[in-house]
Amino acid sequence: MQLLTLLAVAAMATADHITGGYSPTKSRVSLDAKTDFFTAVGNDANYAPATNGVRICATKFVSVSQQVVAGINYKFRVKGCAVDRAANAVKDCVCPKDAPRQTYDISIYVQGWTDTYTVNSITNVTDAKADL
């Protein structure tokens, strides 16, 4: 009986996930995910060339999904503004008064046990919608 209960709990815990895929998008972003986000975006050395020098001060987390690989791939949707350097994208950052607030998708890879944090892409969702 205990074995059946354990199997049922395990099945329910994994039912929401697609093997190898991203978890369902969650509007509640965990403290661990936020910590990983700010550790990644707060250092210019963590940005992949594909980000083209874009840095975002995230003032609100909209959602996150994640994929467990040899680390974690995150897809964050945030509201915020473009800033001039990573040091201005840290936790509790403030957007300049004249900076437009927009929505961005930011993809980050984290491998905590090797202290690896990579910001892979930043997409301005507000601009992408305007292009449609």
UniProtKB/TrEMBL annotation:
Residues spanning the signal sequence: 1-15
Keywords attached to this entry: Signal
A GO term for molecular function: cysteine-type endopeptidase inhibitor activity
Keyword Protease among record annotations: no
Protein name, per record: Cystatin domain-containing protein
